[in-house]
Amino acid sequence: MRFAFCAAAVAGGLGAPLTAPAAEAGVGVHMYGIVDAGVAVTSVSGQGSQSGALNGGLTDSLWGLQGGENLGAGWRSRFQLESGFDPSNGNAADDGRLFNYAAWVGIGHDSVGELRLGRQHTIGQAYGSALEIASWKDMGMGATFKASDNFQLSNMVNVTSAVWNGLQAGVGYSFDAGDQGAFRTGQNPRALSLGVKAENGPLLAVATWDQLRLAHAPDGSAGRPQAVQLGASYDFEAVKVSLAWSRQKNGYAGLDGGDPDSLGLGLGPAPFVRGGTVDAWLAGVSVPVGPGAVLVQWSLARPDWHWDNGMTARKAQLVTLGYTYGLSARTTLYGFAGYASNYTLDNQFDPANSHTTRVGAGVSHHF
Question: Which pTM value belongs to this model?
Fold first, then answer.
């Protein structure tokens, strides 16, 4: 999961107006981006350690274009095109598509809301990830709260309301969540995402619900994967605190949980898909220190299933400690250390009960 401020600072939150000077003038295009690179040492019990360049230790490296036009009477059109990349080798991120992070166009009104069409985050991801305190590479909120992980869905329609006294609601639907490309819509996996968030000064409260509708469920699947998320954060100025809870059932609703048993969709472990449940908790604290902040975050994911060999799946636990140091408004130095039990970077729940540690440092620059 990537730092929540990435979306807020450079892409605009769901339902928020464009802030680029060109957009304020009425029509225009604004280019933005982040280059984040560092070094890290990662160790997994029984597998040894690996050291090398780290892509996106604090937030993903990306570049994008956004723009819009004032249509009069409060109406506006907007668009966003965004692509991730790996600065250690210059390659495009993930599956290599040109705009893998975002490719949408929308129309909205300040007092009504906004409609967006195209590849984008789900409502659950956008609202839930705002609760994240520490986004360290592979060890952020999305490691245990998969509905808030950094994933996007294609063929998606998102509708968000205007903000009324700090309250906003949203609903989204993907007609082809797995990029299957079948002609009949019912032959593609479809995703539904609902959410509401309330902001009142230092207080943020979030509730989301996601469901995946599989066209071809794996053998033994118990039904539609779904995820509920509830959480709140409060900024006391001297310290910011965030708390959250999630229940995930029948696999990962975002198709972002890996495929350890070759089920074919990224739903997660087979016992999870066949009726399993994961309850997850998260607590994070940010303390301003000098020009930066100390970030502490803990999360726990408790499964309720047994592996095929009869062993009980153990809870995964993850804790991180880090510090960000602002050299300027655009450049940040960072360092962090993380420890996870019964967890590897590839599998949230590891049948071998491995332990994973990572220590890293790097620099993040915004343009």
Answer: 0.91
pLDDT, one tens digit per residue, over 311-354 is 999 999 999 999 999 999 999 999 999 999 998 888 888 888 89
In this structure, the number of other CB atoms found within 10 A of the CB of residue 212 comes to 25
Q: Is 169 helix (H, G, I), strand (E, B) or coil?
A: strand
| Separation of alpha carbons 95 and 101, rounded Å | 11
Of 151, 51, 138, the residue nearest 320 (C-alpha): 138
Q: How far, rounded to the nearest angstrom, does the alpha carbon of residue 349 sit from its chain's CA centroid?
A: 19
Residue 95 and residue 152: Cα distance in Å, rounded?
Answer: 12
Q: How many CB atoms lie within 10 A of CB 203?
A: 12
Q: Round to whole Å and give the CA distance between 63 and 85.
A: 8
* CB-side neighbour CA atoms (13 Å) of 348: 30
The answer to whether 168 and 131 are in contact (CB under 8 A) is: no
Q: Encoding tokens for residue 98?
A: 């040109």
Where b means 16+ CB within 10 Å and e means fewer, 53-83 reads ebbbbbbbbbbbbbbbbbeeeeebebbbbbb
Asked if 123 and 172 touch (Cβ cutoff 8 Å), the reply is yes
Q: Which of 203, 147, 138 is nearest to 339 (CA)?
A: 138
Dist. CA 351–CA 142, nearest whole Å:
20
Can you spell out the DSSP letters for 270-281?
HHHHTT-EEEEE
End-to-end CA distance of the chain: 21
Residue in 57, 26, 25, 30 with CA at minimum distance from that of residue 41: 57
Strand 226-235 and strand 240-249: the pairing is antiparallel
Please answer whether residues 175 and 190 qualify as being in contact, where contact means their C-beta atoms are separated by less than 8 angstroms.
Answer: yes
296: Cα separation from own chain's centroid: 18
- Between CA 14 and CA 80 the distance in angstroms is 12
- The secondary element (H helix, E strand) that includes residue 128 is helix 123-128
pLDDT of residue 347: 84
Structure token digits, residue 338: 């993380």
State the Cα–Cα distance between residues 211 and 339, nearest whole angstrom. Answer: 31
